[in-house]
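re: the backbone from monday

yeah here it is again, tokenized this time
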């Protein structure tokens, strides 16, 4: 009777709580990263800075996050995941709070470096915790809920941040994020249980040896390379897509927020569904279908002229679904690659690669496109062809990575690690239920 009663529940109450907590945490980190761009007009005016200085404020976060992730990789598997999460999240809160009280440009620049050092590692820690606490069979839908943070920050966070800016100034969004983050940190401290299963495996390597071991495994290297190509191909369109939409497609700048609002709402709705599809259809299968759909939409979108508003919205929604499908399926597959004692290091390095690859993508896009005196974006179609080529390459790479992962699971000689992982995933909810 106990077995039949337990099977209908996919997640226990504690697991639902953890998923919600990680999603809100991810929301605060992503919102802090993306809210700086819409504040550009206010910052340029009030801080009396040039566009190049503002660009440095935006990019310094990514580069400091990339360096921090690599350095943190050596220590990521030597501590309780909960303590590691709290340490970096508190640092993130301090950095965000400093942004909220920054009196001048130099102070703001230093605060963004601090925020990047701590906030840039958060994504890797979240993915590591998801991998530790949830079985492979349901990991896709967990990723779907966690990835909802991207859409939520777009449709809730940015409009609210701009609204607060208009009332109380550009400091207020950072103070709002810091305030919300404090409550999240308290919830982690009080309610999250220690995550220490990986510590039961003895490790004699020092931090530098741990990093070296992680970056020299062939399967890990293939995963890192696939991640870099995935991010570069995915991010190249982003810096100039809004300018292309307004100047080339003829969408009024007043209607541009509506385009992002509709896209964000739709993305938030379908994100959990895509997680379930990932678990049922398979990681590569969904990734391949989404990539083909993405290539078609990218080639259409980048070669358009004047387009009705409804057409632009429809293309953005379909493209958003393709991007989310690729993100959820590929990130779920990546969680299956590292051994339990190397998960933290693997995720930290992977996160660093994502940050650096995003910066490289923006630079490359800036070198390819140009803007005429009338505002038209030239060579955006060339950017579309390059992005499509990158997307084709990722299909091949993800195919071979999934084959290697499945082969590794079949030929695994040790039964100890899976037992530790499954016990870690099942024991915590059971303990919570008895409380």
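seq for it, each position gets an aa:
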């Amino acid at each position: 009777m106990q077995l039949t009663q337990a099977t209908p529940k996919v997640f226990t109450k504690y697991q639902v709580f953890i998923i919600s907590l990680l999603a809100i945490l991810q929301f605060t980190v992503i919102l802090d990263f993306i809210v700086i761009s819409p504040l550009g007009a206010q910052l340029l005016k009030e801080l009396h800075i040039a566009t190049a200085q503002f660009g440095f404020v935006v990019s310094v976060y990514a580069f400091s996050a990339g360096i921090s992730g690599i350095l943190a990789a050596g220590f990521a598997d030597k501590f309780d995941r909960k303590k590691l999460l709290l340490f970096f999240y508190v640092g993130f809160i301090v950095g965000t709070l400093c942004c909220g009280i920054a009196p001048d440009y130099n102070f703001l620049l230093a605060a963004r470096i601090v925020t990047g050092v701590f906030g840039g590692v958060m994504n890797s820690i979240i993915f590591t915790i998801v991998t530790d606490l949830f079985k492979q069979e349901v990991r896709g839908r967990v990723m779907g809920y966690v990835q909802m943070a991207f859409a939520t920050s777009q449709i809730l966070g940015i409009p609210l941040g701009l609204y607060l800016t208009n009332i109380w100034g550009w400091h207020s969004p950072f103070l709002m994020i810091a305030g919300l983050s404090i409550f999240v940190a308290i919830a982690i401290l009080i309610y999250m249980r220690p995550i220490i299963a990986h510590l039961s495996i003895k490790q004699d390597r020092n931090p530098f040896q741990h990093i070296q071991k992680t970056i020299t495994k062939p399967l890990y290297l293939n995963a890192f390379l696939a991640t870099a190509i995935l991010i570069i191909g995915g991010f190249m369109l982003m810096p100039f897509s809004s300018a292309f939409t307004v100047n080339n497609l003829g969408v009024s700048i007043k209607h541009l927020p509506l385009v992002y609002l509709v896209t964000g709402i739709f993305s938030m709705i379908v994100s959990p569904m895509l997680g379930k599809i990932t678990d049922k259809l398979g990681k590569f299968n969904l990734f391949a279908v989404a990539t083909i759909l993405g290539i078609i939409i990218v080639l259409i979108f980048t070669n358009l002229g004047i387009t009705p508003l409804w057409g632009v919205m429809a293309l953005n929604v379909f493209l958003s679904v393709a991007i989310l499908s690729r993100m959820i399926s590929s990130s779920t597959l990546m969680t299956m690659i590292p051994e339990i004692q190397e998960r933290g290091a693997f995720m930290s390095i992977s996160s660093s690669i994502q940050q650096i690859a995003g910066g490289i993508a923006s630079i490359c896009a800036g070198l390819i496109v140009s803007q005429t005196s009338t505002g038209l974006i030239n060579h955006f179609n060339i950017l579309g062809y390059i992005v499509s080529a990158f997307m084709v390459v990722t299909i091949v790479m993800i195919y071979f990575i999934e084959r290697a992962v499945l082969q590794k699971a079949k030929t695994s000689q040790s039964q100890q690690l899976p037992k530790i992982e499954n016990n870690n995933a099942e024991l915590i909810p059971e303990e919570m239920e008895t409380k």
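Residues 1-7, 413-435 have pLDDT under 50 and may be disordered. The domain at 13-434 is CATH 1.20.1250.20 (Growth Hormone; Chain: A;).
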